[in-house]
TrEMBL record, chain A:
Residues 6-410 form the FAD-dependent oxidoreductase 2 FAD-binding domain. One of its GO terms (cellular component) is glycerol-3-phosphate dehydrogenase (FAD) complex. Keywords: Flavoprotein, FMN, Oxidoreductase. Transmembrane segments: none annotated. It comes from the Archaea. Gene3D superfamilies: FAD/NAD(P)-binding domain (3.50.50.60). This is Glycerol 3-phosphate dehydrogenase (Quinone) subunit B.
Automatic annotation (TrEMBL), chain B:
GO terms for biological process: anaerobic respiration. One of its GO terms (molecular function) is oxidoreductase activity. Keywords: 4Fe-4S, Iron, Iron-sulfur, Metal-binding, Repeat. Residues 75-108 form the 4Fe-4S ferredoxin-type domain. This is Glycerol 3-phosphate dehydrogenase (Quinone) subunit C. It comes from Natrinema hispanicum.
Amino acid sequence: MAIEDDVLVIGGGLAGVTAALAAADQSAQVRLVSYKQSTLRHASGLIDVLGYTPTGDGPLVDPFEALVDLPEGHPYERVGLEAVREALSFFDEIAGDAYDGGHTDANALVPTHGGTVKPTARYPVSTAAGLASDGRDTLLVGFETLPDFEAPLAASHLEAAGAPFAARGITVRFPGIVRDDAKVTRYAHLLDQDEAVTTAAGETTARDALADIVRSQLEDEARVGFPAILGDDHANAVRADLAERLGVDVFEVPMGPPSLPGLRLEDLLYDALEDASVRVTTGVPVVEYETGTSGQIDHVVVDRNGTEIPHRADQYVLATGGLVGKGVRSERKRVFEPVFDCHVPHPADRYDWFVDDVFGDQPYARFGLPVDRDLRPLDPGDEPEFSNLRAAGAVLGGYDFAAEKSGSGVSLATGYVAGQRAGMEARQ
Amino acid sequence: MSDAQQPTDDGGPGDDDFEPIQVFPEAEEMDLRPGADNCYKCSTCDTNCPVAEVDDEFPGPKFQGPEQWRLKRQDDHDIDDSVMKCSNCMRCDSACPSEVPLSQMHNTARAEYVEENMSKLSREYWRNRMLANYRRLAPLGSMFPRTTNFMMGLSATQWLGEKLLGITGQREFPEFATETFREWWTARGGAQVENADKRIAYFHGCYANYNTPEVAKALVRVYEHFGYEIMVPNQHCSGTPMFANGMLEDARRSAETNVRELAWALEDGADIIASCSSCSMSLRQEYPELFDFEGTEEVAANTWDAVEYLRVHEDLEGELEGTSVGDKFDDFAYHAPCHARNQGLDGQTVEVLDAIDGITAHDVGDSCSGISGTYGWKKENYETSMKIGSEMFEHMEDADATSGLTECPTCSMQMEHGTGYEITHTLEVLEAALVGPAEADGQ
């Protein structure tokens, strides 16, 4: 016997989880299988839709205005503008008050740890007080033991970028952290649990000690930004406590990997899966599939540390990620999709896969699956590879999410559409 | 594009006869280089490490694995002693988005540290050796279970254990059963069902044999209910506590016995079933990663978790539909052991129990219990172990249940230690639902 469900989603990132939730929303019995942990922990936790056009214009004020002009084959063009809006509303409902930005179509500008600003459609509440469009003067605080955030540099970078406020950066010692390479989860845990720490002033708690250190250096700035390590499970309480003790607003600056806002988003999404009774299997890859009599996928085989376990569903969603998530892989002579070997268009000569300018218009960035408007992957003859397989997220081709700042939005929109249609069809 | 414009590192475009140049000599031992090279330092593993989150002193899995491996390419580098603080929960394995075999690297580094850098005369060495080789001590305790239980329960014994051996006095030693599973099995005359088509070889492990034979008996009754012929081959410790303590040679000896015995069972047409998630993890993943006896791969590929096997080979959920467990059990706070999680079994118990009427298993989240086998028994780790476990204790107390459920013997100890709840194994619940208490008691 196989392990049976109505819809099987392969991949546990933003696209996969959204697909699973959208399918469950159609009353289907859904299972999500994910091999390794999703790259959400690499991600900033920001939900962008479109920051720049494919030709590099931007930052865009209104991403939706630009969506209608995207080239054929772009994932947004495949699903259409309305689906993008519906997917965002779907996300807003899941995220509740953990995210801001739903009040407007316009992009928000969120300062990053490099001192640049990123145009984004939704942002974690922890970053809300830091928006670059806000004119209040800003103090950025970095830590000696956390070299990923160089606060003075980020502050001067923000000013140089034309932010409408004065920004100043300081570097302090984080109370309670001894080693030079403590993990970000260690910082977060100290603040979450408000653990006892010893400072020059004696025994105190982590939150008190941090507030004391910053207060002594606060001038007349109206808000203070920290690298995004302010707690994990109790991030809101940590921020509120620090704000109260400092007497000014406190915000987080999203960081590179591993990222607490990405981790919190992952927790939020997986809690939603549990609430929606989606069955979740993690840590094991899908390695094979068998087709049925009419060429549809009959079942897939999951490898559990060497033992092969069949999983059968009526509908399948492939959301295994792109080149980083390994949903698209490459060898010397080919680029391929490893689970179903779906067609990935790419030049035969690998020297045509890239251009020499590192930040140039890289062809490989657009490698991925071509799909029809139902998000079914297409073979070289433009026919669906399988009648019951849809694809979502970074495994799709035809867009460069890093350049466009469209990664989360595409994952949400295509995950939502793929999951909803899979759920509807499975129920019939 | 022509080769004149762009130098190529192969025979040129269109040349299919690419022959890579041999840069490194053929590996004679296990080759960890590809694994180390796969690490692009995203640090996802570090954010999953339950030890690094609570212990400043621990540099995390990324250091213990690929970074330490690279440092070791220089002859003048010893393995850092912090490798002994790794609890071997193996969460970093499934965390890594780039397929770095972290626990394999930790296991080999730990073994090298113990071999090269730990004094064989030290208290730590002997304490660890003793903890790792529970399987050798248990038969002694089990010979006079009541006396042993009495002795081990004495505060004087606990005090001595802590002072002499560095085994924490905070925990109570698990009690030895008055009749081991194997004694019971022999007394009942072995298998009660013969079936050449449906045959399993049960790897019960040490704990279900010496301490919780009720779990092993539950497995027997559930499998006989489905018409399976059960074989109970000779077996040694799975090796889990030995890997965790860097006693790789002890583990190798045990593994050799197990692979040989289990490979024979495979020849008899049996599949291998384990009821302890760390035992199945060991047979499935650690053996093929660390050893290459004849049959290692076959044993790994044919080893199953006890519940998973029934789900795939029988209609377990269909069979459970409409059953109940009467007053025997109530709702559970369920903890998925790290080693079950790493086998993709994290959601299984909740899904399966869903089919039984009147009871629910509430998943208490993905935190680690913190005991990690022998780790939390060591005096120097006790506090860290309890700090890691605090999240699970909180979630257990928040769950709408007053007893616990898990598949791992040491997680079970930690759950009981932290909450005072009585802890049950999933197989005992299936036994109650499928076989019923009356029939079970009558056997």
